[in-house]
Design brief:
The chain is mainly alpha-helical and 166 residues long. It has a domain of 86 residues. Helix content is 51%, strand content 8%. Helix 3 runs parallel beside helix 5. It is globular.
Length: 166
Amino acid sequence: MLKELSERQLDDDVALAHMLSVTAQPLPPLNDTVAFGACFNRFADARVVLLGEATHGSSEFYRARDAITRMLIEQHGFRIVALEADWPDAAHLDSWVRGRPLAANARAAFARFPSWMWRNAEMREFTEWLRSYNAALPYEEHTAMRGLDIYSLGASTEAVLGYLNT
């Protein structure tokens, strides 16, 4: 029985390797951000594009995500960037990239774990670009930033309720 399972697993592994070899496409160099981002044009008609990653901190991933996200915003009209971040932290960032004043009760954004995921040079460059991009558009066409996590349950609950009450 064990030998049969091992042979079946091997067959599955070979089939998977074959499928990947015939469908995988090489990416252009990351320093050619226009060509790199264009590889993802096939997702232009999607309502949601999820960009997962396993590093939580590599510059290469942040630059790749930047190129893809810019292309989706500029070329295909995507208007929300959702972050694996607390709602209040992302709301702080959203106010900044959309040129709005910060809430009077805003706390320091991205000041606790995992601050390094968002407080880095690549994210700064992306948000500066997004702020500039938004500034050239009417407010209703701005791209927003939203947080999807609630690591800080109390602060996130308070911020979400405050948002819903406005």
